[in-house]
Amino acid sequence: MHIEQQKIPQATAKRLPLYYRFLNNLYNQGKMRVSSKELSEAVKVDSATIRRDFSYFGALGKKGYGYNVEYLLSFFRKTLDQDETTKVALIGVGNLGTAFLHYNFMKNNNTKIQFAFDTNEGKIGTEVGGVPVAHIDDLEEKIGEDISVAILTVPSSAAQGIADRLVKAGVSGILNFTPARITVPDHVRVHHIDLAVELQALVYFLKHYPLDVEENIESDEED
Ligand code: ATP
Questions:
Q1: Does the domain made of 86-192 have the CATH classification 3.40.50.720?
Q2: Which CATH number is 5-79 given?
Q3: Does ligand 1 lie within 6 Å of residue 90's CB atom?
Q4: pTM for the full model?
Q5: Closest ligand 1 atom to the C-alpha of 161?
Q6: Mean pLDDT, to the nearest integer, of 177-205?
Q7: Contact 187, 168 (CB under 8 A)
Q8: Do domains 5-79 and 86-192 have the same CATH topology?
Q9: Which pLDDT band, with edges at 50, 70 and 90, does 83 fall under?
Q10: Are 120 and 93 within 8 A, CB to CB?
Q11: In sequence order, what are the residues at sequence separation of 6 or more whose Cβ sits closer than 8 angstroms to the Cβ of residue 170?
Q12: What are the backbone dihedrals phi and psi of residue 110, each rounded to the nearest 5 degrees, phi first?
């Protein structure tokens, strides 16, 4: 994803795919414009944040008119590099890995899981969700120059070792679904998603910070 980093703050950049998906749906329904209020309700970001975000995109909404859907979409397409497909590898075809392979990431954005890897002989040579499963020993050879992103769904104990190999093979982004915190060089970006922790956090917040209905809107966290 090529975003003009110096111009768009990271917090805004993170919301881009969300906006893009929603606006694309609107466009497909034939809608030409959208108000920040409508957007706010749909993507659960407050409308002041949306207005500020969109001002970075050079889109200035007009009162009583809203934003031009087509203009925004063409901006997002350019910014998100939607013309180019990012090839992804998935390591660990267990329950979670299998679910991801069946989930069609292509529907909403241009990423494609090209190869999956595992150590289990019973899985190697099969296809899961249309993706071939290769032996982990063939990781470096298959990844080649093409694959820049990897999804890690191996057991925690294997996470660091695999991450080291991925980095050596030239991967620059890792989506880590294992509970293990992995260490990588500065030029590699790791996004860590621990589903168990997320669920626990949600339950904790529900218990201790009950929401007012009015506040049920994601707050803006600027980096
Ligand atoms: P999940 O955590 O996805 O629910 P699971 O409980 O089915 O998975 P795990 O033991 O977590 O199984 O392993 C996930 C997958 O990772 C399995 O298919 C396993 O064979 C594979 N795996 C384990 N070690 C490695 C490794 N070093 N390299 C690649 N794959 C591995």
A1: yes
A2: 1.10.10.10
A3: no
A4: 0.70
A5: 27
A6: 93
A7: no
A8: no
A9: low
A10: yes
A11: 143, 145, 148
A12: -90, 65
User: Dihedrals φ, ψ of 42, to 5°?
Assistant: -75, -40
Evaluate: CB of 93 within 6 angstroms of ligand 1: yes
Residue 131 is given by DSSP the state: E
Both tokens of 125, joined, read 């040579």
Host H or E run for residue 163 = helix 156-168
Domain range summary for the chain, segments of one domain joined by +: 5-79, 86-192
Closest CA to 16 of 85, 67, 66, 73: 73
pLDDT at 223: 41
Span between the terminal Cα atoms of the chain, in Å: 18
Cβ neighbors of 146 (< 8 A, separation 6 or more) are 87, 114
C-alpha to C-alpha distance for 36 and 63, rounded to whole angstroms = 10
Reference 100, options 176, 160, 170, 156; nearest CA is: 176
Q: Which two tokens stand for residue 8?
A: 């768009």
Higher pLDDT, 6 or 130: 130
Residue type, 36: S
Residue 179: strand, helix, or coil: coil
Q: Which atom of ligand 1 is nearest to the CA of 98?
A: 3
